[in-house]
Amino acid sequence: MSTAPTPDVPFSGLTRLDHVGIACRDLDASVDLYRRTYGFEVEHEEVNEEQGVREAMLRVNGTDDGGATYLQLLEPLREDSPVAKFLDRNGEGVHHIAFGTADVAGSAQEVGRTGVRVLDSAPRRGTAGSSIVFLHPKDCGGVLTELVQSGH
Amino acid sequence: MSTAPTPDVPFSGLTRLDHVGIACRDLDASVDLYRRTYGFEVEHEEVNEEQGVREAMLRVNGTDDGGATYLQLLEPLREDSPVAKFLDRNGEGVHHIAFGTADVAGSAQEVGRTGVRVLDSAPRRGTAGSSIVFLHPKDCGGVLTELVQSGH
């Protein structure tokens, strides 16, 4: 496998900003705010019991890798979920950003080689059947960062 | 002017996630981190004296409105700049998000009509000759939100 960068594909294989994850206390109210204020519509909604969230994906635009960029609104299901703890500490706001890749395991390996801690030893299930890993925010300039491979 | 939503253009005229603004203490170190970790390259760098920042735009992907999505790395020039205050309170991390529009004045007016406070009475100069306004984060789900019209 070549790991040389090319003009089109970054070294890490990350080809788009997939989404910005935003923590909120009331998903329905937040969906309403984003629709009413900006006109963004919900493309997908689900409960992720493992992560302890109810979430909605609002599509903002298509991307030149054939994917799209979304706002991901996240409401905690439980007091002990990571998003609930984030809300306690910070209030509502940006929780993480996610870069899209065609190969999340490969991208995680490449990023890990640079010294960034990958928080998941193997990809786990994200939104809509996607595969995801998280990177340690302390190694990413204070930004909780997710890598995501679309499920379709 | 028609304000009816269409399938392609949201009511507000916002057609892309233009950038995620990230506050950092040392721009050169952050640029190096993002290049080394992900392969993102600097497309533009400038000093904005009015906003009290030195900044770099790293291109992530192209968008289907003919624009692109960037990471905007922001280093404060002065102790009293808004980004310096953000760093004091929060440390390094996501500072704001920005949506792109072909008409920032029109979009600001539409968004303002929904009750969201627009912090700039008229668009001011953003990165690379762009025109920008900021929206009050308390009206935007805790997210400091910028609207931006490209300068080219």
From TrEMBL, chains A, B:
Keywords: Metal-binding
Biological processes per GO annotation: L-methylmalonyl-CoA metabolic process
VOC domain sequence ranges: 16-150
SUPFAM superfamilies documented for this protein: Glyoxalase/Bleomycin resistance protein/Dihydroxybiphenyl dioxygenase
InterPro entries: Glyas_Bleomycin-R_OHBP_Dase, MeMalonyl-CoA_epimerase, MMCE/EMCE_epimerase, VOC_core
Keyword Metal-binding annotated: yes
GO terms for MF: metal ion binding; methylmalonyl-CoA epimerase activity
Alphabetical list of PROSITE patterns matching this protein: VOC
Family: Belongs to the methylmalonyl-CoA epimerase family.
NCBIfam families: metmalonyl_epim
Name of the protein in its database record: Methylmalonyl-CoA epimerase
